[in-house]
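Q: What does the predicted 3D structure of Zinc-binding protein look like?
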Amino acid sequence: MPTQQFRAATWLLFSAATCTAPAWAYTQHEAHVHGQVELNMAQDGNDLLLEITAPAADVIGFEHPPETDAEKQTLTQAVQQLNHPETLLSLNASAGCQLHERQVSHTLSEHAESHDHDEHEHHDHDHEKHSEHDHDDHEEHGHHDHEAHKDHDHHGEHGEFSVQYTYHCDTIDQLNALTLKWFSHFPATEKVQLQAITAKGQQAATLTANQPEFRF
């Protein structure tokens, strides 16, 4: 199945599953929690899709667009690390799984920050169109609103990474274990909430540095 169709089918599977799933399923995507990473696994024939959603704070230690050279380097190194799934997880060798495609994205773009700034500037410009009598009041009001909005955006930032790994497994019927090495590279993560939909059914587990293996 083409990758895009596979991903679409995966989301349909997870959506359908959570309609009748136990309580643990409803914790997925409900909140952005530092120290908690989500890992979804879905099988379609001999193809396997792994999707990871992680708070930026877990991966790089901050959640705003990088401002300093050091932060930019940290972000670059993290993206490079995430592009090497063999360093972050492993599937049991007998399943014969080979990486077919990988995709790493994040919400820490400087463009998004600039876009918000442009909207604020446009908002202030609208205030300047009012009468001269109200100009001072509106200017002061616009300034305070702008600063308050900036503060709100800063404190309300929730940067995150989204990662997708697609595998083709020659003997997927022998797939029975996933081991995470994530915690060695990103120690700020306290736990990984895993949800799996495979030929063996729907399963869930909480993985930690002390218990990094999932068997199914």
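A (community wiki): The structure tokens above were generated from the sequence. The chain has six helices and nine strands. The longest helix spans residues 132-155.
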